[in-house]
Structures are given as C-alpha cells and as structure tokens.
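Hi,

Apologies if this is the wrong queue. I'm a grad student, and the batch job for Alpha/beta hydrolase from Candidimonas nitroreducens produced an output file that my downstream script rejects. I'm not sure whether the problem is my script or the file. Here is the sequence I used:
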Amino acid sequence: MPAPDLPQYHVQGLDYPMAYTATGAGPAVLLVHGSLCDYRYWRWQLPALGARYRVLAPSLRGYWPAAYTRADPRFNVEQHARDLADFIRLQPGASPVHLLGHSRGARVALELACNNPELLRSLTLADPGFPAAGDPAPPAFHYDAVRRLEQGDIEGALAEFVDTVNGPDTWRRMVGWFKTMVRDNAGTLLSQVREAGLPFDMARVQALECPVLLLGGADSPPRYGRRQDTLQAVLRDVERAVIPQAAHGMNLANPLAFNRCVLDFLDRHAQAGPLMGTGDTTPRPLK
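Support response: The file is valid. Your script probably expects a header line. Output copied below for reference.
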C-alpha cells in the first residue's frame, strides 16, 4: 500500500512556522501525534477521515521538519497545548474541532481540552501516555534512551524507547518510512526526558463536558489500560474501545479498525456549524 502524498503547509501568526498537512472538507478533525513522530504518523488516517471531514495534522513545536537537536525549554506539554489552541483559532472558518491525540499527544490533547473546552466538539485519547497521581513509578526507559543518545548510540536509543512503549522487537520490525520519521525526531528526547513520570491531575478532567472516546490497543503494555481505567472513572461522557491485533501503534498496525472506530464516534457526535473547506489553506492572522 503506497504512502499517500502529504502536502505541507505552514501557519503564519505563531511565533514559529508550525508545519502541518490537511485534507478533506467538513467539520474539523485535529490529529496530535506522540513521541518521536510528526504529522507523517497519520498517513493512513488522512485519506479515510478526510473523505468525510476536514483533517488537520500538525507537527508539534520542536518536531520535524524543524526538529530540536538539543534540550529546549520551549518543548513541553503546556506550550504544545497553547500552540494547538492558537492553530485552531487561526484556521479559516475556525470552529470547534474533534480532537484526537495519541500517546504523549493524548496528554497534549487533554491539556488543551482542560484549558480551552470551547474549542472542542469531541475528544479521542488513544493509549494516553501519562501517569495519574498515585500510579506506580513508570519504567526508566526515557533516561536509558537519552543516555544512549548522548553517547551517540542513536539506533540503540530509539530501539529502547520504541520497544518499551509498543513491545519487544518492535523497532527491528518497523518499516522504513517509520524509522526515518523517528530518526528525524530523535533529538526531541533530550527535551522530553524532563517530562518523564510527570503525573496529570485527574481532578481537572471532571469538568469536561464534551464526549470522550478512549482507545487502546489489544496488545498494548498494561499501563496504558490502567490510565484509561482512571480516566473512565472520572469523565462525564465517555466511551471506550479496543483495537484488535494492535499494540500501542494501533493506527498503523490496524488502520482499518482504528479508522472505522474513530469515524463511528465522530459521526455520532457531529454537530451543525461552520465547516472548514479546502479552498483556502492560509490561516487567518491571530488577533
């Protein structure tokens, strides 16, 4: 299955030129990638979701095509959430979006949802990558990966990280385009390590009123399921689904099931309102 061509656009109006790709027309769906990834991570979601929706997939600050190669204080969840809030407001015909985040991107998405609930129609969290207060200490793989990276062992660092989040031997079995993307973003680990083990205050999500979908891979490491258990217990309007024959990278391992599940949720929670079309990809000035 050939990779689709992903056009690249840049937002003008932020304090840096955020890169993103976009396709389709209709209510907006915003996809937020996780660690070591960028907008290319969503290559199998863009055509499927774009058949019914306006799909926007940005690369977060510090990721490819302008990836940080050293630790930078601007790389943090709060900054990424602020960037995305501005990104939504800058879109032509801006309206509330369906927000979907994966892994670390799910934490960014949840931060945005708590800070700016008016910008959301719905929220989907796929294997959210953060502990709750009181959870057992997470594995120390962030530190091990960074140590290898600082020693010049880039392949070893990436294998350590990817195999820990998705399962043993994942890195060796990954396809070429995925490895290229991850290598392009290897330096982001030098900044991300400062977030390792940082818990999320679950009391913040109790006020969320938008519908929420929690997605997990059937073969994901158990800690991701425990995080969803915690979220499910406190969210007001929540659904939960499992993607079969998939681990943490569920949207790549089983894109048909992932896309079908997401589209079913989006279709049931679509709302009338301004639509984002394909005719103008130039963001509005931020006021």
